[in-house]
Amino acid sequence: MSGSVRNKRKPGMTLLSETRSSSVMTEPAITTENLVKVFGEKIAVDNLNLRVDRGEIFGFLGPNGSGKSTTIKMLCGLLAPTDGHAVVSGIDVCRDPEQIRAKIGYMPQKFSLYEDLTVKENIDFYAQLYGVKGPGARKRKEEVIDQVGIGHYRGFLGKQLSGGWKQRLALCCALVHRPEIIFLDEPTASMDPVARRGLWDLLFTLASSGITLFVTTHYMDEAERCSSVGYIYNSRLIVSGGPDELKQARDVVGQGNVRLEVVCRPLVRTFNLAKALPYVDDVTIFGQALHVISENPQAAELLASDLSLEGVLVLSMREIEPSLEDVFVTLTKASMQEEEIRLSQEALQQGQRRSEFDDEGDDEPDENGGKGRRSL
Asked: What is residue 359's DSSP assignment?
């Protein structure tokens, strides 16, 4: 499995790693070592250690404001790191940021091409911008048009395209100069399910041809399709690894937890009932079923009995494996709790320092020879 992360261990950080055979080791597409970006007093990216292998689809997940876009900007050579080291396609990000841009393509979340140009004119413009010229230029442009499947729309204006076809056009422009790595920032955010699936089929084809894809997304089903994923929260990489590896890691999803899928009627009333039971640690609604988490090994029997007493119709109940969503929710809650503890400890220490300062002031003699508060 590719895409493992080596990171400095910090409180609350869970790391997954793998043993790589020296026979299959190749130069990675992307590596970062203790990469940091600070804006004023705000730490946007905190000691990011990352490895993405060539030809894989790496999913980069995290809440808004967690540091995903800042990381991409540094890796694209658009933003200088405050500290640390990063290499993209063999090029040092800090030393040669301009050289990186010839090796990468970038596809933003929002359509940023020219809406008043046709599909063909947009591709022509970006080909010229990337230096795709000469006898092979026309052939290359036709290749990417065929590869992305946008040939029927070559005469359409950008503004006439649907959201899905706009994204395909953006991908076409990102591919025209034969990049080794493509960064895609939430590429399917505005797409319907059919268009989303079609784009992912295309991404799989690109990855199979050796192109490395670095994708940010909020969709858990898309994260499941990635070769490996990394989860960043509050500027720190919390965990990374293959989707199956993350779901099976007991230090991530909890040792000994019982996870149950309960199909029942009525659903919402049962949700409220289950949430109040002392042995239920968490319960959420997934479609037409409840997902219940408990540390009690007898949870299934207890739950069936308690729900029956309340008149709930239980159609089925089975034990299930954790999903990627379970993994990320668990990690986010743990990180939030640790952050609250840290802030409480800092507030307590500041209060203690102020108290000690006040005590020292009380020991200073006043004008009448007594002890009073020190003048500032």
From this structure: H
Residue-wise pLDDT tens digits, 245-271:
888 776 666 666 899 999 999 999 999
> Do the domain assignments include residue 183?
yes
**Domain identity same for 117 and 201:** yes
Least confident of 161-170, 171-180, 189-198: 189-198
Listed residue (212, 199, 233, 216) closest to 89, CA to CA = 212
Sign of the C-alpha dihedral, residues 278, 281, 282, 283? negative
| Cα–Cα distance, 250 to 231 (Å, whole number) | 17
pLDDT at 376: 40
- In one-letter notation, the amino acid at residue 235 is S
Domain of 220, in residue numbers: 30-248
Contacts of 160 (CB under 8 A, 6+ apart): none
pLDDT at 308: 96
Task: Indicate whether 127 belongs to any domain.
Answer: yes
Bridge partners of 211, per DSSP, are none
